[in-house]
Amino acid sequence: MKEAIAAYAKAQKLDPKVKIDAYSWERLCWYGSLHRHAADVMFSCEKAVQLAPNDGYIRDSRGLARALTGNTQGAIEDFEAYIAQTDDKEIKSQRQRWVKDLRAGKNPFTDAELKKLLQQ
């Protein structure tokens, strides 16, 4: 994960005008979070949302990072944005469960849940 973060930083240092798209930032955000490096990749989550603020998929990834770094309200907002945009009933149900748990002060992101997300 540290190598991936360094590669993004190096690309921007070599060429400050390099265009890294929202999806690339989102992938770093999502996988960094799943590997328990959410705080380290939060900058990429924010960049992705900055580039595509209305993309529920990108907001979903930032929601995961926010939840893992203790920003419960921000996570709920991001997950709700995703829930509003997805037609996938299974994923919608999963995210609704996460929101319910977060509102109740529970952490839905157990090691088992993160492992399951990595396998999806």
How would you characterize the overall build of this protein?
This protein has 120 residues and is an all-alpha fold. The protein has a single domain (2-107), classed as Alpha Horseshoe (Serine Threonine Protein Phosphatase 5, Tetratricopeptide repeat). 76% of the residues lie in helices and 0% in strands. The chain has 7 helices and no strands. The chain has helices at 2-14, 22-34, 38-51, 56-68, 72-85, 89-103, 111-119. It starts with a helix and ends with a helix. The mean pLDDT is 92.
In short:
This protein is mainly α.
Helical stretch tally? 7
Distance between the termini: 19 Å
Order of helices and strands: HHHHHHH
- List low-pLDDT spans: none
Count of individual domains: 1
* CATH architecture classification: Alpha Horseshoe
CA radius of gyration: 14 Å
Q: Give the mean pLDDT.
A: 92
Strand content: under 5%
Total number of β-strand segments? 0
Task: Give the CATH superfamily.
Answer: Tetratricopeptide repeat domain
Secondary structure: helix percent: over 70%
* Helix-strand category: mainly alpha
Assign the CATH class.
Answer: Mainly Alpha
Shape designation: globular
Which sheet architecture does the biggest sheet show? none
Named CATH topology = Serine Threonine Protein Phosphatase 5, Tetratricopeptide repeat
